[in-house]
Amino acid sequence: MAQILMVLTSHDQIGDTGRATGFWLEELAAPYYEFLEAGHEVILVSIQGGQAPMDPESQQPQNLKEAGKKFLADQQAMLHLANTTPLVDICPEDFDAVFYPGGHGPIWDLAESPHSIELIEEMYMSGKPVAAVCHGPVVLRHAKTAQGKPLIENKQITCFSNTEETEAGMHNMVPYLLEDELKRLGANYLCGPAWGDFSVVDGHLITGQNPASSVSSARKLLLILG
């Protein structure tokens, strides 16, 4: 049984707009159950600890998939979500893999968190799977290799695309477009059709494009774990 860390945002609004955000439910719930059903232990952590904010849009009927419905009705899962461990209390060597769900929240806190950056660098350099889906790959923005280069330089990677951000009406609300930012850092950005399932593996780095890519990203992490 592996110990899989799932790291959530604690940021609950889009910049200073007052519009609510957080993590995207599908991107937590679908991998959460994939990992549990494979016999692994899942530990939920967030920047601040305690209740991690869920983007209310991800609970709307048009966005609520089976895994999300199951999670909302799962008392143990919801209790776990209400009592996440503060990221600062986590020791990377205690875990076998890390998975970052998206939502817009991570752009403002996890992307800039020195604790998150250190976690990613230590896990990656130890050869452990590092996975992120949708806006989750923003957490790779400041991560470096042992040589001080961007971790994602020349890596095949995906994330929420410029097209999807525009179609979601969020392109003017975010500080940068994630696709552009990853390209700027030297990533070999790959993209599937908008809103379709598309995930990419480069070594032990796994990224998914959007909420529909949550399950395939989780399964690719499980394959690497063996």
Q: Please, could you describe this protein's structure?
A:
The structure is a single chain. By secondary structure, the protein is of the alpha/beta class. It has one domain (3-225): Class I glutamine amidotransferase (GATase) domain (Rossmann fold, 3-Layer(aba) Sandwich), CATH 3.40.50.880. Helix content is 29%, strand content 15%. The protein has 7 helices and 9 strands, in the order E-H-E-H-H-E-E-H-E-E-H-H-E-E-E-H. The strands form 2 sheets. It has a 7-stranded mixed β-sheet. Helix 1 (25-37) packs parallel to helix 7. It is globular and about 45 Å long. The model has no long low-confidence stretch (mean pLDDT 97).
The CATH superfamily bears the name Class I glutamine amidotransferase (GATase) domain
Shape designation? globular
The helix count comes to 7
Strand order of the largest sheet: 3-2-1-4-5-9-8
Average pLDDT metric: 97
**Helix percentage:** 25-40%
Q: Uncertain spans, ≥5 residues at pLDDT below 50?
A: none
Structural class: alpha/beta
Report the β-strand fraction as a percent range.
Answer: 15-25%
Q: How would you characterize the largest beta sheet?
A: 7 strands, mixed
User: Under CATH, the topology is which?
Assistant: Rossmann fold
> How large, in whole angstroms, is the Cα Rg?
16 Å
What series of H and E elements makes up the topology? EHEHHEEHEEHHEEEH
Count all strands and give the number.
9
What is the C-level CATH assignment?
Alpha Beta
Q: How many structural domains are formed by the residues? A: 1
Per CATH, which architecture? 3-Layer(aba) Sandwich
Identify the quaternary structure here: single chain
Please give the alpha-carbon distance between the first and last residues: 10 Å
